[in-house]
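About this split. The held-out portion is used to measure sequence recovery: a designer receives only the structure tokens and must propose an amino acid at every position. Recovery is the fraction of positions where the proposal matches the reference. Here is one held-out target exactly as it appears in the evaluation file.
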């Protein structure tokens, strides 16, 4: 155990992506060296986790060597120059399979990169391979499919890493990638990040293009029904989230001819200047005692650091009613994605759309005085694998059995109005399982939430390698 702990301390594989990029720029480490270490780590660890489902070994090593040659020449380098990383299977990567965990797509090979992938490459990142997903991204709590199998949590392989970006978060936590990119409709970045003890960002709605994030086949026609679907980065530090968002956000195609985008400055750079809204529990989705204890400790640490803590939901936010509207909008999203399904009555859609926009207005007013809103990511830490049909699943907590679907409650309040939200590690339960808090920021002020997560980590701790 001591040897393993020493190796974890000495290896660069558990450092941040921005640290890795800096080491390459300074010629302290070569991209080739980092890539070889990463590939060896995947070979050693992935059999226990089943997080990485496809690799491009030779191409990756060739690109790493090219990155080192560019460094030697003194060529201008992007912020992620020479950094090897994996990416969620649902993004198109040229010459790799895009399956969405569906056996029907097992032979599909993408012929071009998704916008996110292209922008990461332009920033200097090297795409090593793909990570596992829930079947058609249809499960926020677990990652499993008939094509690639079940992904395990690196903190306890008998438990789930979350879904649908479970392979994404598990690989990052276990040192099999320096950076990752996932997707989030019903918490599919935030829940896996919380379950695996890493950071994950659901960006503001529409901030990062979705082009190339799609199942194989004829692309769906353009639709504004993507208003709650987001793609965003996962990293071992908030600084990595900022770096990845900075290079992947902004308009594309015709919109890019009309305007440009840059990440705004955060509201504050000191906790003692921050006003933090807090809600740690709700009777509709009670938070288990092992999670509540960590959340309470985190809020106490914020208060000791000088942050102003304001308890309670924003005026005009009915969490239960808006959770119901969130569920309706998710169903509407899938109705548009699956022609032939029954589409809900138009009058009902109008009612729920009015609720969505009222929620956005209420949160916008709230953030006039409050900088970020802190709440749970989930009511539970990672739970044991459960292969039962979706509707039969339950989650055991110290307070009793809970419905599986209750996991969507806490993530819904950022998703419905399209707000940015960071999942940040805040510690581990008595059983050693990671728990994350959700930091919700003002619309389009993603850097305020990211910077708060950075300051928060200084007083509560951040990522730690799992004992895998």
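Reference sequence for scoring:
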């Amino acid at each position: 155990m001591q040897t393993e702990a020493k190796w974890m301390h000495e290896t660069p594989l558990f450092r941040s992506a921005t640290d890795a990029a800096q080491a390459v720029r300074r010629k302290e480490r070569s991209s080739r060296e980092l890539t070889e270490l990463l590939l060896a780590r995947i070979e050693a660890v992935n059999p226990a986790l089943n997080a990485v489902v496809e690799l491009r070994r030779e191409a990756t090593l060739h690109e790493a060597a090219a990155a080192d040659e560019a460094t030697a020449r003194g060529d201008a380098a992007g912020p992620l120059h020479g950094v090897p990383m994996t990416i969620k299977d649902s993004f198109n990567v040229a010459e790799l399979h895009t399956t969405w965990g569906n056996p029907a797509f097992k032979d599909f090979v993408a012929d071009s990169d998704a916008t996110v992938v292209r922008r990461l490459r332009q920033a200097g990142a090297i795409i090593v391979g793909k990570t596992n997903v829930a079947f058609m991204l249809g499960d926020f709590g677990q990652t499993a499919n008939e094509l690639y199998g079940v992904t395990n949590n690196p903190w306890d392989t008998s438990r789930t890493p979350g879904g649908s970006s479970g392979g994404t978060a598990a690989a990052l936590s276990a040192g099999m990638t320096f950076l990752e990119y996932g997707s989030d409709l019903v918490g599919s970045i935030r829940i896996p990040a919380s379950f695996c003890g890493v950071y994950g960002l659901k960006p503001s709605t529409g901030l990062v293009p979705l082009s190339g994030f799609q199942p194989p086949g004829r692309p769906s026609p353009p639709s504004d029904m993507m208003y709650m679907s987001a793609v965003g980065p996962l990293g071992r530090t908030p600084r990595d989230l900022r770096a990845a968002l900075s290079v992947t956000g902004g308009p594309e195609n015709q919109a890019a001819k009309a305007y440009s985008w840059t990440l705004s400055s955060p509201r504050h750079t000191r906790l003692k200047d921050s006003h933090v809204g807090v809600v740690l529990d709700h009777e509709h989705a009670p938070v288990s005692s092992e999670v509540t204890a960590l959340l309470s400790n985190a809020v106490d640490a914020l208060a000791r650091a000088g942050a102003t803590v304001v308890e309670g939901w924003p005026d005009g936010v009915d969490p239960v009613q808006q959770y119901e509207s969130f569920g309706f909008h998710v169903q509407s999203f899938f109705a548009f994605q699956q022609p032939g399904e029954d589409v809900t009555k138009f009058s009902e859609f109008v009612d729920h759309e009015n609720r969505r926009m009222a929620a956005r207005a209420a949160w916008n007013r709230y953030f006039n005085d409050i900088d970020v809103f802190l709440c749970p990511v989930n009511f539970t830490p990672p739970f044991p694998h459960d292969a039962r049909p979706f509707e039969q699943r339950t989650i055991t907590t110290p307070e009793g059995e809970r419905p599986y679907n209750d996991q969507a409650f806490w993530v819904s309040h950022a998703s419905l109005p399209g707000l940015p939200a960071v999942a940040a590690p805040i510690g581990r339960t008595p059983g050693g399982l990671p728990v994350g808090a959700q930091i919700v920021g003002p619309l389009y002020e993603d850097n305020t939430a990211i910077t708060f997560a950075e300051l928060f980590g200084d007083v509560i701790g951040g990522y730690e390698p799992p004992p895998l």
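Annotator remark: The chain is about 35% helix and 15% strand.
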